[in-house]
Amino acid sequence: MTSRAPRPPRPLSALRTRRALSALIASLALLIGLTAAGASPAYAGLDGPVAAYLDQHCAMDTTGSGGTPTAVPVDRVSLSLEAVTHDPANSKITAVYTIPGTSKYGTLFGRFDPVKGNATFNYTVDNPPADATLSISYEVAWTDGTYYSTTRTGPLLHCTRDNTTGVDREWASDDADITAFQQCTSVGTGPYSIRAEDVTVHISHHPSDASGFAWQPVWVDYWIPGKKGYTSGASGTTDSFGDVWVTFRLLAPPTGAELDTLSSVRGNGSHTYPVHKWVTIGC
Question: What are the C-alpha distances in Å from 128 to residues 48, 231, 260?
Fold first, then answer.
């Protein structure tokens, strides 16, 4: 038997690259496998049972610890899906984003809210490259055997250290105007007092559109990047002008962090439209 010299260890960067590629291949294989298992031609194209809305928002994240934190430009991508012609209950969703030509990707799983009829997924893309394409693929499977899948592509926001504020891009126009107000407060007394913030969201519509959103339910959820998914904030009903005010409270919020309020606005035609409003936590 011939002895062999021990193989030198692979560089850490190579291992990370192989692991990332393996995870990406597994995610795409899962999505392709689900699609091949039962994509219904009756729901192919844009007239299927799912409507999609995409929002991108440039921001900065801080990585590292100790005395050398590093600021990293990021693109916060929010994918909102709505069950349109199918009951939202008993669903499973797989949503995958990729940036062709790079190793950047993300896979999330979820289900439609049975009351609101929608689901939202958040991805954070670090150092988004210039002139890149964002590809979003999603598969929805219902327990009654209905499947729907599609892929949408569009330009990725190029977020940089000099290009982070007020930079947003949507793949569909907003169906409401959102204004957010913040008021600092506290809960409890004395040494047990907890810092808090009341966030009031005003949802309004143009007079020409008001009749289509009158006396309809709305739901406002919120997400603080770094937290997992959205938290239910408040709900209400619009008036005859399609306006509504709702308030929710944040306990000990991270001062200076970004807050994404997601308003799900129901229209008279039964569609539920997502509208994002980003603010900086001031309390």
Answer: 31, 27, 20
